[in-house]
Amino acid sequence: MSVDAIILGTAILVALATAPLGVFLVLRRLGLMADAISHAVLPGIVLAFWLTGGSYSTLPNLLGAAFVGLLTVTLVELLAKTGRVRGDTAIGLVFPALFSFGVLAVSLYYQNVHLDLDAVLYGEIAYTPFNDFIVGDRNVGPASLWILGALALVNFAFVGLLYKELKVSTFDASLAASLGFAPALLHYLLMALVSMTTVGAFEAVGAILVIAFLIVPAATAYLLTRRLSRMLLLTVLVGAVACVVGYAAAIFVDASISGAIATVLGLQFALAALLSPHGGVLTTLVRRRAGWQAKSRPEKRAGLH
Amino acid sequence: MIDVLTDYTLRNVTLGAALLGVVGGVLGSFAVLRRQSLIGDALAHAALPGIVLAFLATGAKAALPLLLGAGVAGWLGSLAVIAILRVTRLKEDAALGVVLSGFFGFGIALLTFVQHSGRPNQAGLDAFLFGQAATIVASDVTTFAVLGGLALGIVALLYKEFKLLSFDSDFAASLGLPTGVLGALLTSLTVLAVMIGLQTVGVVLMAAMLVAPAAAARQWTDSLSKMLLLAGAFGGASGFFGAAISATRDGLPTGPLVILVATGIALASLLFAPLRGVVPSLRREKRARARVRSEVTS
Fold first, then answer.
1. Where are the alpha helices (DSSP H) in A52-172?
2. What is the ipTM of this complex?
3. Which CATH number fits domain B1-296: 2.60.40.10, 1.25.40.10, 3.90.550.10, 1.10.3470.10?
């Protein structure tokens, strides 16, 4: 496999893995929770690093992140439940504190090891082809493709198997509860998957740019359609297009690939906000003008102006 | 602790952090009351491309142009959030998420472009991600003081208007106040706080400097003026003690410690503040229950 194909494949797999989660994050208004989790991943990685005695392998990382991700969600909900602060304030209290612990631990104990803060934050997808996955003593190809492929499968299976339950609990939580769908369990499952996907993707795109993949394609798709199934499809499409265009742009100007992809995602969102058939700014303007003309025409014909 | 007042570097770092805390606390109070706690997070991330563009334009790492670049980009980011909320059906969380990641991604792309271009003097631009309090010099503190004084001065001048806007914006509008302009102004002042915070705590941790002191102050009082004063005091204390603790040992980063002190104050207030703290109100509840029980049984 060529280096280009591996990098692009990794990026598209990130888009695929995050799409089913992003759709429900946007619909459930949990975008900021995703922001919080993507930051809180850092102490999770540090914790895994410490527990495994300094090894740098994928499974402990995923578990550590899932743990700290769930801890973040639990702490936020605990704080909000006291009724003393609102949900957004609780998020703003929890994730900087956890992130601070992470930075502190790294600078106190892991100053000289591979836990490079920059890599955690904005990743370096260009290195993914050089990190191979070894099973026994056979080299089965780039680890990033395996990890993200597996995460994409798990996430699509989650949404596919629990589609009805997720749909009902997203649009009508009390109906879902009365039908016995356990919305709280669904919520925590979703958050655990968000945490694990964030870590799986962090080597490729960095923890903070994961939030670009989690939120922006789904938000763009939300502007373009009013149907859940179509939104899911569009989210995948928007993410994949951004990967191809962003990758090409990054090579062209020699800049960070994940940064370029996030930039393209932002531009796509702006385009959708302007041109969407459902309430895009320009579309509405054009339609309104056409409406005025249609209204004024009969009057003109009758010579009333 | 005495060193804090005599050592040149330390004095600047603690003064800078304390100033950030005071300004962040006051403006954060409005953000928290207006349910926009995480606007600071989005603005701080959105400031990154401005820093890099300012560096590209001036070719130097002078503090003032970089801060101005950051301010302009952060301000544009805040306008983008307001525009998304106005023209789409998306809610705050998605609007903040889109602006945060779009601007920040663009900033990272620019930053790496500059780093790869081999331009002289570019190293250390990424210090803004986590802040680098140790680089604060006396002239920076003066800049911070001017920016902070400007922000606090405007808050003092428009106190009544901002108060109305935060508690009942419909009523404010019915009085003929330009609520849209006032809201945008308040957000722009938050951009000033972010500009002070970038060098001290960095992009990633800026959110807490606005949220934690305000959330702490809210537990002690129901009056806005007292809340602003308390939030400023809590923020200032977090900045001062966080910076002082980080000076006690090598390799202790200032930003995270300032944040942890602020979070500690917030947690203590949530638990023990006499007015709204969890423990005092549980105790009040218990006492009331005992009184009712004794009245019923006697």
1. 58-81, 87-109, 117-122, 143-161, 163-171
2. 0.89
3. 1.10.3470.10
